[in-house]
Structure to design on (299 residues):
């Protein structure tokens, strides 16, 4: 059995070319490195170096051995990282969501059902969410489109509809409903961390002057104190969190009415069985679980 440190030293010698340089990089003495290379030759049973006065170099055997040494070291590192990642995942549940409201609900339920686990959550616009889920970045995801895949367990968990919040005197305030394209040319306040809603607004109203805010505190202050139009949803309106002195006009684009689907891989169902069974008892109106100003500041 060849000890790992010998492979590391051989790979270092191949990379740096001299005993002195390799010894410096490895923080060992040059004589100690020389002894290690002789030991490696004895273990393998062939000469790996050509030696001359004040000079040592890898021969063809040594060059081949160094290639294999690096491959073994790479596999060694891969094994360590894979085992550590497996251990992390066994103690962590990762959930991704296309929108903030269902993410808040699902995270709350997971924390209740898995009190001994760390819950990791990520808000994602949705374009890469399913791909990342399929690549095991998440164990659970909330999507706004129902995936058609026989290997997945899917459950509808609620819906949400987008509105534009306008000052009473705004030209669009008397509309029964508007399409996002009708916002083109207007200045509209928007918070960036609203998942797929943000992408939808940017895509459907590309010529709108969006006043983008990344800081929630700044967004809240502007939403409360300015007369700029901003977005809200039926959930925030029904919960009394949307601004009272505003007219809320529904967005008519088909994509502005979203259904949410919780998705789990069928192979993972045994792990989440109790949690998924508890979903049958959940009232998916989310009215009591909203804690952030995701769309518009309240009065």
């Amino acid at each position: 059995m060849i000890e790992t440190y010998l492979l590391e030293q051989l790979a270092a010698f191949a990379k740096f070319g001299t005993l002195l340089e390799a010894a410096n990089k490895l923080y060992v003495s040059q004589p100690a490195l020389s002894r290690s290379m002789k030991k490696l030759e004895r273990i393998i049973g062939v000469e790996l170096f050509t030696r001359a006065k004040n000079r040592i170099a890898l021969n063809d055997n040594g060059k081949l051995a160094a290639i294999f040494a690096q491959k073994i070291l790479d596999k060694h590192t891969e094994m360590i990282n894979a085992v550590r990642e497996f251990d992390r995942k066994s103690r962590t549940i990762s959930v991704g969501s296309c929108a903030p409201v269902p993410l808040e609900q699902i995270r709350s339920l997971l924390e209740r059902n898995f009190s001994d686990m760390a819950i990791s959550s990520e808000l994602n616009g949705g374009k890469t969410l399913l791909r990342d889920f399929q690549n095991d970045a998440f164990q659970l995801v909330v999507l706004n489109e129902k995936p058609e895949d026989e290997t997945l367990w899917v459950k509808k968990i609620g819906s949400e509809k987008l509105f534009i919040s306008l000052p009473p005197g705004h030209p669009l305030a008397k509309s029964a409903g508007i399409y996002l394209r009708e916002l083109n040319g207007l200045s509209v306040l928007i918070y960036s961390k609203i998942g797929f809603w943000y992408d939808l607004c940017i895509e459907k109203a590309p010529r709108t002057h969006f006043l983008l805010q990344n800081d929630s505190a700044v967004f809240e202050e502007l939403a409360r104190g300015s007369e700029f139009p901003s977005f809200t949803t039926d959930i925030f309106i029904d919960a009394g969190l949307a601004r009272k002195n505003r007219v809320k006009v529904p967005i008519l684009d088909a994509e502005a009415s979203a259904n949410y689907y919780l998705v789990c891989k069928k192979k993972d169902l045994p792990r989440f069985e109790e949690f998924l069974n508890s979903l049958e008892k959940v009232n998916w109106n989310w009215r009591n679980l909203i804690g952030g100003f995701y769309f518009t500041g309240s009065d």
Confidence is low (pLDDT under 50) at residues 288-293.
